[in-house]
Design a protein that fits this description.
Layout lengths: L3 E2 L3 E5 L5 H8 L2 H4 L10 H11 L8 E9 L2 E12 L5 E8 L8 H15 L4 E7 L3 H10 L2 E12 L2 E10 L1 H7 L1
Parallel strand pairs: 5-6
Antiparallel strand pairs: 1-2, 2-3, 3-4, 4-5, 6-8, 7-8
Helix pairs in contact: 1-3, 4-5
The chain binds coenzyme A.
The site of coenzyme A (COA) has 20 residues, from β5, α4 and α5.
C-alpha cells in the first residue's frame, strides 16, 4: 500500500492532475533557490517529471516521490522524496512545500510519518542533507529527530556558486524520542 495518512495529511502517489500545481510551486524562486532544478518549470516539464514518478516503486530500492495533500481538501501541497539504498540499510529523504503551506508543521508531520514507515520496512538509518544557507530546511530535520553529523565544505555547485552542505542522520530510536 502506498498511501500514508497522518492527523492532517495524506501522502499518496502522484497523479497527472498534479502537474499544474507542481509547476506553480516549483517555479517560485523562493522554493527553487536551494534546489537542483531551475525555475520556472512549465506544464510540459511538470508532466514529464510526474510521468517519471509514476514508474517508481515505494518499496524500493531506489527513489519514490510522495505527493502531499491535506486530508480535508484534495490537491497537491508539496512533495516528499526518499531513496532506499540497494542494501536497504539506509535511506535519504527530502521535502518541498508550496510557500503558502509552510509554517504549520506539515513538513514535520510528513517526514515523521515516512521515516516511521521506512524504519518499519527495515531501514536502519535515514539521512538528509541541505544547503547550509537554507535555514528553514536546516531546522526541519532537527525537529523530526535527526542529528547533524557533519558539514561538507563547498560541497555543491548551485547555479555557479559553491556552498556548504549540512548532513543529518537519524535512527529509529531518535525518531521515537522526538515524536
Ligand atoms: C524545507 C521546508 C519544507 C520546511 O517547511 P517548514 O514550514 O519550515 O516546516 P514545517 O511545515 O514542519 O513547519 C514548522 C514550523 O511551523 C510551526 N507550526 C505552526 N503550527 C504548527 C503545528 N500545528 N504543528 C507543528 N508546527 C507548527 C512550527 O513552530 C515551525 O515554526 P518555525 O520554523 O518558526 O520553528 C520548506 O521551507 C520548503 O519547502 N523549502 C523549499 C524547498 C527546500 O528547500 N527543501 C529542502 C530541500 S533539502
Amino acid at each position: 500500500m502506498t498511501d500514508i495518512v497522518t492527523r492532517r495529511l495524506r501522502l499518496r502517489r502522484f497523479s497527472r492532475d498534479d502537474a499544474p500545481t507542481l509547476a506553480r510551486y516549483r517555479s517560485d524562486p523562493c522554493v527553487a533557490r536551494y534546489q537542483t532544478w531551475c525555475s520556472p518549470i512549465g506544464q510540459a516539464e511538470a508532466e514529464a517529471i510526474i510521468a517519471g514518478y509514476l514508474t517508481e516503486n515505494p518499496d524500493g530500492p531506489g527513489c519514490f516521490q510522495y505527493a502531499i495533500e491535506l486530508r480535508r481538501r484534495r490537491g497537491l501541497i508539496g512533495d516528499l522524496a526518499f531513496a532506499i539504498e540497494s542494501g536497504r540499510d539506509q535511506a535519504e529523504m527530502g521535502i518541498t512545500l508550496a510557500p503558502d503551506m509552510r509554517h504549520r508543521g506539515y513538513a514535520t508531520e510528513a517526514m515523521t510519518a515516512v521515516a516511521d514507515r521506512l524504519f518499519a520496512a527495515g531501514v536502519n538509518r535515514i539521512t538528509a542533507a541541505c544547503d547550509a544557507r537554507n535555514t528553514a530546511s536546516a531546522k526541519l530535520p532537527r525537529r523530526v529527530g535527526f542529528e547533524q553529523r557533519g558539514r561538507e565544505n563547498q560541497y555543491v555547485e548551485q547555479r555557479g556558486a559553491h556552498a556548504d552542505f549540512l548532513l543529518f542522520r537519524m535512527s529509529s530510536e531518535q525518531l521515537r524520542r522526538a515524536s
